[in-house]
């Protein structure tokens, strides 16, 4: 009976994955043409231009609007905190989660300033609070001793995230930022990233919310033990999530998938959200088209994960580099006003033709004839196009 229910959930997830299609490269090209017509040096707004082109391709509309913005904060606890991998106890998860409701967290204050609506969600805290509750279970198990959760719970948490994204689209939101609150979640994220990227935990595990050298060694040891004990399969993202992941990561991965299903952009935050996005991309590569990078977290694994999420080379991961590593969605919210400045130029600025300036030539490329911007950037969002 239980196995049958699990199979049905997996089938439902498969149905969702099939519903994801790449962004529309023709619409992206229309947006590129609009940028190239604006009376300013070509490509001079860099990432801001690329992100708006990408959003046009995702939504299928070159008239990009980001008026209604949401931050979805997945709150959950992680059993692995028993191993002494964090500086604070997991009671802090519930305190901070409730503070989202009173507007008294870093992300809440930034949301107020940036005009972003904030939605904390309890997807698996050990404590019951006033935070809206879609709890899958009361915290995960300590993965050093047993798998963090069952496969069925992992799938259910992903499906919950998908549904949250779909509901927000129905409510009219045009962009979803993702964030998390869960003491111990840089340990689970490092474990998941280590398996999915095939890298040693030492290479990508950092100090999270603050650890001394001996704490960091305990954290690496816990991750090594969990991976050795449960043998998560790198080619099965749900297996990795269930064995060494967390419910907040699962929920955020679901939101990435839900954003892709609904053709709306999902703005990533720091390392933990990057890992959730990586999981989503491993489940369905086309999700990449719907992800926007805000910043590169100070956690050592962040750059490695982001490199996998972009087609670009290591040194070319475009994201704000502010030395931030707070979580909660703060980096995602911090980038939105910058992106909106770019969007206002895209929407309002006059063209070369209107100013009677001859069309600009692209001298930034080594070989403009062979490597014109149309040829290289029109491919944003997948297969080449187009009429
Ligand atoms: C007071 C406080 C507020 C936070 N807000 C976000 N985080 C961040 O730190 C946690 C991850 O770090 P680690 O894996 O080391 O526990 C997450 O909850 C993350 O959102 C916080 C952490 C603390 C202590
Ligand atoms: O990069 C992050 O998301 C992060 C890093 C440390 C602590 N909390 C979040």
From TrEMBL:
Record keyword Transmembrane helix present: no
Record field: catalytic activity: 5,6-dimethylbenzimidazole + nicotinate beta-D-ribonucleotide = alpha-ribazole 5'-phosphate + nicotinate + H(+)
Q: Where are the transmembrane segments?
A: none
- E.C. number: 2.4.2.21
Which intervals of the chain are annotated as region Disordered?
A: 364-387
Q: Which GO terms describe its molecular function?
A: nicotinate-nucleotide-dimethylbenzimidazole phosphoribosyltransferase activity
Q: Which InterPro entries match?
A: Nict_dMeBzImd_PRibTrfase, Nict_dMeBzImd_PRibTrfase_bact, Nict_dMeBzImd_PRibTrfase_N, Nict_dMeBzImd_PRibTrfase_sf
Protein keywords: Cobalamin biosynthesis, Glycosyltransferase, Transferase
Q: Which SUPFAM superfamilies match?
A: Nicotinate mononucleotide:5,6-dimethylbenzimidazole phosphoribosyltransferase (CobT)
Q: Where is the composition biased (Basic and acidic residues)?
A: 364-377
The pathway entry for this protein reads as:
Nucleoside biosynthesis; alpha-ribazole biosynthesis; alpha-ribazole from 5,6-dimethylbenzimidazole: step 1/2
**Family of the protein in this entry:** Belongs to the CobT family.
Please give the function described in this protein's UniProt entry: Catalyzes the synthesis of alpha-ribazole-5'-phosphate from nicotinate mononucleotide (NAMN) and 5,6-dimethylbenzimidazole (DMB).
Would you tell me the protein name for this molecule?
Nicotinate-nucleotide--dimethylbenzimidazole phosphoribosyltransferase
Give the organism, scientific name.
Dorea hominis
Q: What is the lineage of its organism?
A: Bacteria, Bacillati, Bacillota, Clostridia, Lachnospirales
């Amino acid at each position: 009976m239980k196995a049958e229910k699990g199979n049905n959930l997996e089938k439902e997830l498969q149905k969702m994955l099939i519903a994801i299609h790449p962004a529309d490269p023709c619409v992206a090209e229309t947006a590129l043409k609009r940028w190239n017509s604006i009376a300013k040096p070509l490509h001079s707004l860099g990432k801001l231009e690329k992100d708006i082109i990408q959003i046009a391709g995702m939504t299928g509309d070159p008239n990009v609007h980001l008026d209604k913005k949401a931050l979805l904060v997945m709150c959950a606890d992680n059993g692995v905190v028993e191993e002494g991998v964090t500086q604070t106890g997991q009671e802090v998860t519930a305190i901070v989660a409730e503070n989202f409701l009173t507007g008294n967290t870093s992300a809440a204050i930034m949301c107020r300033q940036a005009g972003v609506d904030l939605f904390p969600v309890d997807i698996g805290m050990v404590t019951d609070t006033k935070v809206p509750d879609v709890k899958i279970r009361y915290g995960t198990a300590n993965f050093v001793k047993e798998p963090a959760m069952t496969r069925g719970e992992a799938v259910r948490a992903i499906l919950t995230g998908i549904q949250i994204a779909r509901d927000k689209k129905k409510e009219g939101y045009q962009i979803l930022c993702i964030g998390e609150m869960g003491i111990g979640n840089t340990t689970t994220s490092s474990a998941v990233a280590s398996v999915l990227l095939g890298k040693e935990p030492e290479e990508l595990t950092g100090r999270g919310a603050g650890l001394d050298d001996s704490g960091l060694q305990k954290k690496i040891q816990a991750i090594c033990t969990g991976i050795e004990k449960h043998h998560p399969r790198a080619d099965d993202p749900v297996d990795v999530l269930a064995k060494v992941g967390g419910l907040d990561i699962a929920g955020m991965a679901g939101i990435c998938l839900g954003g892709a299903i609904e053709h709306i952009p999902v703005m990533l935050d720091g390392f933990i959200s990057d890992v959730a996005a990586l999981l989503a991309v491993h489940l369905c590569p086309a999700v990449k088209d719907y992800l926007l990078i805000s910043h590169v977290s100070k956690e050592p694994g962040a750059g490695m994960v982001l490199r996998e999420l972009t087609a670009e080379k290591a040194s070319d991961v475009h994201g704000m580099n502010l030395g931030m590593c707070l979580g909660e969605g703060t980096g995602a919210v911090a980038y939105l006003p910058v992106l909106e400045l770019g969007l206002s130029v895209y929407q309002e600025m006059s063209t070369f033709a209107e100013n009677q300036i001859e069309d600009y030539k692209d001298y930034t490329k080594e070989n403009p004839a062979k490597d014109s911007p149309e040829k290289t950037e029109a491919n944003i969002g997948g297969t080449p196009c187009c009429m």
